[in-house]
Specification:
The protein is α+β, with helices and mostly antiparallel strands and about 100 residues long. The protein has a single domain, classed as Alpha-Beta Plaits, CATH 3.30.70. It has 5 helices and 4 strands. A hairpin with a 7-residue loop joins strand 2 and strand 3. It holds the Pfam family YCII.
Length: about 100
């Protein structure tokens, strides 16, 4: 276990339209997600299971910057999803993940 000091965001992505409508924008959404990784902001992401929301874990930006970034998501642009952003201050992580964040 590694002691860290890092603000982390968890974004919950909930569909607001039927899955069939959402899937029409899936490829563009995947490209958006890839760009978040390329920019060094997204740490992990994935779809929800059994009706749970999708999740994006992000770091290295302010809440305001992340809110603006999520507006670039085609799911947002086409009113396919809503976003709930949760912020927490990570203080511990497994050794492998802890290497990504500053130590205390």
């Amino acid at each position: 276990m590694k002691t860290i000091d890092a603000p982390i965001f968890v974004v919950l992505v909930r569909y607001t339209q039927p899955v069939e409508a959402v899937m029409k924008h899936l490829e563009a959404h995947r490209e958006f997600i890839a760009s978040g990784y390329a920019r060094g902001i997204f740490l992990v992401s994935g779809r929800g299971a059994d009706g749970d929301p999708g999740v994006v874990v992000a770091s290295g930006v302010s809440r305001q910057e992340l809110e603006q970034l999520m507006k670039e998501d085609p799911f947002h642009q086409h009113s396919m999803a809503t976003y709930e952003i949760l912020k927490f201050h990570a203080s511990r992580a497994c050794d492998e993940l802890g290497q990504l964040f500053p130590s205390l």
